[in-house]
Amino acid sequence: MINIHSPLSIAIDNEESIYVSSMSSSKLKKYRKGVTYGQVLMSGE
């Protein structure tokens, strides 16, 4: 299970990865299927 705070938008691709943009952290993260930590793809910090 992944813990997401203040999601702005969420998308799922055809490989079932979840993409989350977060308002509180100004980041776009990718969560791969079966993995509980996210890979930061972009950061506004």
Question: Mind explaining what this structure looks like?
Answer:
It is a single chain. This protein has 45 residues and is mainly β. It has one domain. The chain contains no helices and four strands.
Q: How is the secondary structure organized here?
A:
Elements: E1 7-12, E2 18-22, E3 27-31, E4 39-43
Antiparallel strand pairs: 1-2, 2-3, 3-4
Quick take:
This protein has 45 residues and is an all-beta fold. The protein has no helices and four strands. The chain has one domain.
Tally of alpha and pi helices: 0
Helix content: under 10%
What gross morphology would you assign?
globular
Q: Structural class, please? A: mainly beta
Which residue ranges are poorly predicted, with pLDDT under 50 across at least 5 consecutive positions? Answer: none
The proportion of strand residues reads: over 45%
Topology pattern, helix = H, strand = E: EEEE
C-alpha Rg (nearest Å): 10 Å
Major sheet: arrangement of strands: 1-2-3-4
Report the average pLDDT across residues. 88
Number of strands: 4
Distance between the termini: 26 Å
Domains counted in the coordinates: how many? 1
Which terms summarize this structure?
45 residues; mainly beta; 4-stranded antiparallel beta sheet; 0% helix; 47% strand
